[in-house]
Design goal:
9-stranded mixed sheet; 16 helices; Rossmann fold; 6-stranded antiparallel sheet; GMP Synthetase, Chain A, domain 3; alpha/beta
Length: 556
Amino acid sequence: MNARYLLTRLLCWSKCGITLASLGVNHVPMTGPKLDRPIVLANLLEVGLTTKPEEPALVLLQRTWSWRELDEDSTRLAKQYLAMGLTAGDRIASLLPNRGALIIHYLACCKAGLVATPLNYRYQTPEIDHALEVSGASMIVAHAEREESLAASALVPRLRLGRISFEATNGEHPRLEELMTAGGPSAALPPPPPADAPIFVFFTSGSTGKPKGVTHSHETFGWMVASAIAALEITPRDVFMPATSASHVACSSLSFSGLAAGATVALARTFGTDELLPLVRLARPTLLCTLPAPLFALVRDHGAQGEDFASLRRCVSGGDKISAELVNEYTALTGHAIEELYGMTETGTATYNPSGSGNRIGSIGQVAPGFAASVRDDGGAEVPRGTSGRLWMKSPSNMIGYWNRPDATAETIVDGWLDTGDLVSADDDGYLWFRGRKKQIIIHDGSNICPQEVEDSLLEHPGVACAGVVGVHDLVHGENVQAYITFRTDAARPTMAELIQFSKARVGYKAPDVIIALDDMPTTAVGKVDRVRLKELAGEASNGPICDAPRVETGA
């Protein structure tokens, strides 16, 4: 078939109302813009150092580092790590909250060829020990306020090179602050690590099982950084505020993206309004990226004014469902829209909404630069546009694997494509729409029910603060829909029967059969509703009474 014949046929089909989609020709992967090369992590600060060495590179409410200071502190720390016995390829765990020292620690690992292994700062002792065992870490850098958890650990005392303390008041362990400024003996830096050498081991949220160690190399993480720079159009004129935990892939990669582009990075220590709003006013960010919950708190802060957000050119959010209520409140306050995105630890941020008129509210956006996306059925075949299917991603930023888990790696990455486990649909313009997680789909009377859709219906009620939905085994129906909620303290409380009817008016048969009120919603280490724990609560309830059982009502 030559090009002239094909063009003639397309024109004919167009006049007859026939599209390629209707013929099934659109069942091909979607691709984002091409990228030229990855960012070299060992030279991450090069743009800022070359063009504006004394200007702010990293800004916190308590302290600002210039590009020169950031480079010098991270170089000193890298040399001290090597002098303490660490060698290229060693894993060094960190249990640190958002601090400038954590970013400097990551930069030092890049320079020394070490493998940074961030632990979620909310981890308790069993989770700390699990991460240390999986990674085989040689050392841990930890905040002094986590002393109780570390003291209870079985593995921390057995680490080959012990621990380093941060913001400690005693001298029992080396202090991170002193290592960053030390002028004593240190080791020379090695040559830049090879591209395939590991640089990060991040741990999954554990929402579908024991956390696994997601391993990124210098190359895969460098591609991730390059993709974010291109997608967000980051320039040296920007002030970038990634207001999430730097122990996760999102904040760490976005912070690196800002620095690699020569932009100033503003780092929030915590995510309450007593920190976020003052930092917004101090740093005047042009780019803001955060989870929905902190953004809600920021927008609803009684002191927040539209003028506080006047410097922003883009606000992006993801990691959890962005409610229509948040979109409306943010837009009313700032005059701008929120741009939703999608990502995961295994591959970084894979979709973005284009800014301005390209942003589609409710969509997770289009495929990010350097990525390809494929929406498939359970048999692996591409599904038509508009049909829900499992999202597969292909990118040079895909992880190199789960640390020491080749079996799990082989299940997740097939022929270079990464199975996200998430359900999406794609429209004719290439925008993706999130439809839930495959493993958490509830099958009721043969129909698939997405928990998130039911949660959204409950969250529309002004009295509901948080909602989590799971399937509960039923001999007749397969699974029944059971919801857990927490109430808002500043609104009237509805009855459970009223809430069930409220949900039913929005999602029909998908509405919950039972709603249980909790004082606190269980969350995963990354702050998402922990549906695994909710399933456990449901199982415990079915096996007998629970002490201090929450109030249960049905719609009957």
